[in-house]
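Dear support,

I submitted the protein below through the web form. The confirmation email said the job was done, but the results page showed an empty box. After a refresh the structure appeared. I'm attaching both so you can tell me whether what I see now is the final result or a partial one.
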Amino acid sequence: MKLPRVSAVVAAAVLAPTVLFPSMASAADNPQPAGVSGPDTASKGAEDQGSGQEEQDRAEVRRILADKETGPKVREAAQKALAGTAADVRHFLEVELEENRVPDNRLRVVQISDGAGPALRKAADQALRGTAADLLAFLKEGQFTARAEDEDRAKVEAILADKETGPGVRQAAQKALAGTAADVRHFLDVEFPKQRADDNRVKLSQIMAAGGRAVREAAGRALDGTDEDVVKFLKEGQFIARAEDDRVAVLVILADKNVGPGVSQAAQKALNGTAADVRHFLEVEFPKQRADDNRVKLSQIMAAGGRAVREAAGRALDGTDEDVAKFLAEGQFTARAEDEAAANKPALQPTRPAEEPQTGTGAQPAAQPAALTTTTGTSTGATSTGTTTGSTTAGTTTGTTTARSGQLAATGTDGLGWEAGGAAAAVAAGAALVAVSRRRSTQS
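What the results page shows now:
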């Protein structure tokens, strides 16, 4: 019983080295560092970390290239870095980016100042003379502040260029432009609305003083209202009221009994049209047609007048429209007075030759000069007979003796209207055509 047990112990002793030694040999072939269990991953993690940083750097460079604001110098350096190693990319981001931004910023400031307003040009010049930080500050803030100032000044200059700008606004605007940016902004925000309201009321008062009844009434209502009422009158109300006054003015012209046919016809046509037609008649047609009618009337007076009237009328006809109007208002009466004075001047008496003693029957009286008397009708007479020692007396004369020479001139144009009759009208009509034609050829 004891032998088999001993044999088992011996067998275990013999087999133990065989089982243990291969395990120890395997451990000797694969040594492990102290304190580490499991596989080694340290070197692989470092490699992965380096690869991730490079990718982030390259992504940042690509983002810079995608920005439209990136300048040419930065763009060129970024493209070169992307074509290089991870170190090239990192060097670009840490060094080259800021170095190349300075010339790019300088170029951009120069481009902004080109064609800019005075304030923007001044700010850009100051930035160009400064540091890289000054350039960056101008691009981020300064340019916008200066641009706003230029825009404000441009608005003020536009206000001054407007011919409708009143004196109050004009004076305040000029003062603001001579000041600072704050002065300009204050003018636009405060002074301009206030001064414009005052100028509008002054302008309304001027229109009111020169307008007709309808304009005066509408202007008075606006003047008693708000600033908005005044503006509304200036933009709309005055024209509506003036159109009403214009029609009244045309009706007054037509009611004048001395108005000529040309003016009358044009006035009727205007009344049948628009407010613009009525205004055109008053400003253009009325003066023109009145001038033509005046020349026609002058021609009628000239055809029926005496010598002085004809001469004065001829001089006026060869002159301007003002000369014609002056003749009708004054000259014709002065010339007519001259003709009347000439007509009323006593006729010269013939000089009687010295009487000579005569014998025999009576002698015939000397014949009177025909130029001294004008006789119309029938004259009968007989020379007395008998013995006389003096002159023979003319016989009895019967008939009618007409007025002295110049009587036609003395009558002038009394009663001569636009519808003269008889031969005078025919002559006047022809002369009128000549008068108007002469006037228009002179004006051309």
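Response: this is the final, complete result; the empty box was a page-load delay. The radius of gyration is 59 Å.
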